[in-house]
Design a protein that fits this description.
This is Aldo/keto reductase. By secondary structure, this protein is of the alpha/beta class. It has helices spanning about 30-45, 60-70, 90-105, 125-135, 150-160, 180-185, 205-215, 220-230, 240-250, 255-265; strands spanning about 10, 15-20, 25, 50, 80-85, 115, 145, 165-170, 190-195, 235.
Length: about 280
């Protein structure tokens, strides 16, 4: 089912509902710009905010959430907040500690989703046990992973009691990850896109420009719509109000099957981020 509006949610395997669309804050530094961006997004209907320990902006995100709730009257349970455990904190005890630190910085009592940020060999299984503990204790509503290839997922699921509910990966028209997407679907793992706009590197693509003109939309809107129609959650990053509004204005049109296939055809297995198999941790 394709999302019908900005508040629409998909149901994860454990029944928790996660918004199809959210705001990412990768590389947005602590400070007024960050706080304003998160507040702006919430004010304009966003309900999902994605951060991580390594972004070093959890405190600002937490402050913005508190201010936005006060100003808009939105309650905490209407929001969906995600953070991630960084590589240096992988391991059972250190992951539990990292979770507490993230909660403390965010000023929240729980997270809606907690992810293992990268699949560091020999370490991610112990961290997953910690996430399972947090989940069983009711400290986090859903748990998942980020940047996991199929072989990482298989390796994890051999011993896991609970399957990951989400896999957040680099995903855009130059990196469509079809095999991974099919594997996630088969195992009830919701795929989520980071860097959906390829950090701006794909916005001048002539095919995407042509499709955008046809629908009277921006290239960014076409790509984000493509994500949603592919059943992939998307969290574009922006700090500019007009862009935050524009990015989310993707619920009043639908890409044809032919145009979806043309966008699929742009795949080159090209990454703007590191390959999880060759990441210098």
């Amino acid at each position: 089912m394709t999302a019908k509006n900005l508040q629409d949610r998909t149901t994860l395997t454990n029944g928790v509902q996660m918004p199809w669309f959210g705001l990412g804050v990768f590389k947005v530094e602590e400070g007024p710009e960050l706080i304003q961006a998160v507040k702006t997004a919430i004010k304009h209907g966003y309900r999902s905010i994605d951060t991580a320990a390594i972004y070093e902006n959890e405190e600002g995100v937490g402050q913005a959430i508190r201010e936005a709730m006060k100003e808009t009257g939105i309650s905490r349970d209407e929001l969906f907040v995600t953070s991630k455990v960084w590589n240096a904190d992988l391991g059972y005890d250190s992951t539990l500690l990292a979770y507490e630190k993230s909660l403390e910085k965010l000023g929240l009592e729980y997270l809606d989703l907690y992810l293992i940020h990268w699949p560091v060999e020999g370490k991610f299984k112990e961290s997953w046990k910690a996430l399972e503990t947090l989940y069983k204790q009711g400290r986090v509503r859903a748990i998942g992973v980020s940047n996991f290839h199929i072989h990482h997922l298989k390796d994890l699921m051999e011993e896991a009691e609970i399957k990951p509910m989400v896999n957040q990966v680099e995903y855009h028209p130059r990196l469509t990850q079809k095999e991974l997407k099919a594997f996630c679907q088969e195992h009830g793992i919701q795929m989520e896109a980071w860097s959906p706009l390829m950090q701006g590197q794909i916005l001048d693509n002539p095919i995407l420009k042509e499709i955008a003109e046809k629908y009277q939309k921006s290239v960014a809107q076409v790509i984000l719509r493509w994500d949603l129609q592919n059943g992939v959650i998307t969290i574009p990053k922006s700090t500019k109000e007009h862009r935050i509004i524009e990015n989310a204005n993707v619920f009043d049109f639908e890409l044809s099957k032919e145009d979806m296939e043309r966008i699929d055809g742009l795949n080159e297995n090209h990454r703007v981020g590191p390959d999880p198999d060759n990441f210098d941790f």
